[in-house]
Design goal:
The chain is 37% helix and 31% strand. By secondary structure, it is of the alpha+beta class. Strand 5 and strand 6 form a beta hairpin.
Length: 395
């Protein structure tokens, strides 16, 4: 029976980031860590027009800089130099600028495949053991940790199990950890778009009576589209041919980037706010989307999970106790509580405010956007939330 100090279940962006954050300290302390992931990463990165992407906040860049990985990630990280927030059919608009905020970029858009490749290549196999491809089928609580049974019936024990296996975590359900789910009655359509003009590092948040949309800059002058509508509207948009789809998108977005030229493969998924009712138990942590899944329009979900991972690694390495100590895990949870509350609240309120069709609210948000553009202090506060710097002084 193999024994590890930590078992990270899920080697996606959050799980691999946690492993990297622990790597140096674990080596110094002689810890054994195993990373268990169902999908083996490729040996090389293959560019794809349709690659899925994530928006990294400036705070996320700072974390990856501390881990010595940013230089590699930045090779294919498209900087967001400006964010334009507007309300279709109304005068209100706000413009956020990296220059005004005194930072090189408000954030970055990175293809998930590239980010994952950078993370996995940064792992030291002498410190982090890989079980790939492999899946944990069962978790059993022991007096001194957890026993993990893999899909090939292999078993291993650990002092601390970290569940980073996604928003539909079957292991979270298996352990009886409940979730609070708030449906938004919306679905998201995502696709990559090529505009007729250079995006010049501009990101657009466009709010309409039918739902918000975001267009984020990608390398090779592509843009990542996140379009939120009612489920039946998303079904209709998915059925359109490319030309008709681009025409409808153009009608909502306008000609800020010229005529839209190409759309890639479209994907869709339902949207809801999901929060686990427990994030720590003795010898157990729930992390990433398994802990909280947010609406994508505010771009806060992965960035919050990354801050959680960095904070968890810091708490574990700062403690004299072995991984899994409940007091250490509770200290981590207490430290992240405010960050999570404010970030989830910010994301949820932005979603509800700009998803409302009530005349009083639409008039109020129009005035709010105008005020945001006129008041430097308010604009700076909003920018800091967007950059992932508004909830923690040290990130």
């Amino acid at each position: 029976m193999s024994r590890f100090n930590l078992a990270i279940v899920g080697g996606g962006l959050v799980g691999a980031s946690l492993a990297l954050a622990l790597q140096a300290g674990a080596k110094a302390r002689g810890w054994k860590i195993v990373l268990i992931e169902p999908f083996a990463p490729g040996d090389t990165y293959q560019p794809s027009y349709d690659a899925r992407s994530s928006a990294l906040s400036f705070g996320a860049r700072q974390i990856y800089e501390r881990l010595g990985l940013w230089q590699q990630i930045s090779r294919r990280a498209e900087p967001i130099l400006q964010i334009q927030v507007s309300d279709k059919g109304r005068f209100g608009a706000a413009r956020l600028s990296s220059m005004q905020e005194g930072v090189p970029a408000l954030g970055y858009v990175v293809e998930n495949a590239w980010l994952g490749q950078c993370l996995w290549q940064g792992l030291n196999k002498d410190v982090i053991s890989w079980r790939v491809p492999a899946e944990v089928k069962h978790l059993q609580a022991l007096p001194d940790g957890y026993r993990l049974t893999l899909n090939d019936e292999t078993q291993l024990d650990c002092d601390l199990a970290v569940l980073a296996d996604g928003g539909r975590s079957s292991l979270r359900e298996q352990l009886g950890i409940g979730v609070r789910t708030t449906p938004y009655d919306q679905s998201a359509l995502i696709a990559n778009i090529t505009p007729g003009e250079a995006h010049c590092g501009q990101a657009f948040e466009r709010f309409t009576d039918e739902g918000p949309m975001a267009l984020l800059p990608l390398p090779e002058n592509r843009c990542a589209l996140v379009w939120t509508r009612k489920p039946e509207e998303i079904t209709r948009l998915m059925a359109l041919d490319d030309r008709s789809f681009l025409a409808e998108l153009q009608g909502v977005f306008g000609y800020r980037l010229g005529a839209l030229k190409q759309v890639g493969v479209r994907h869709t998924y339902p949207l809801s706010l999901v929060e686990a009712e427990e994030q720590v138990r003795a010898r157990l942590v729930v992390l990433g989307n398994a802990a909280h899944s947010l609406h994508p329009i505010a771009g806060q979900g992965f960035n919050l999970s990354l801050r959680d991972a960095a904070s968890l690694a810091e708490a574990l390495l700062a403690s004299d106790a072995m991984p899994g100590d409940l007091a250490t895990l509770q200290a981590y949870r207490d430290r992240q509580r405010l960050d999570q509350k404010l970030t989830v609240g910010f994301s949820d309120q932005v979603t509800r405010l700009f998803g409302s069709q009530q005349p009083v609210i639409t008039a109020g948000r129009n005035i709010g956007l105008l005020g945001l553009d006129l008041l430097p202090s308010a604009k700076s506060w909003f920018a800091r939330q967007a950059m992932g710097l508004g909830t923690r002084a040290d990130v």
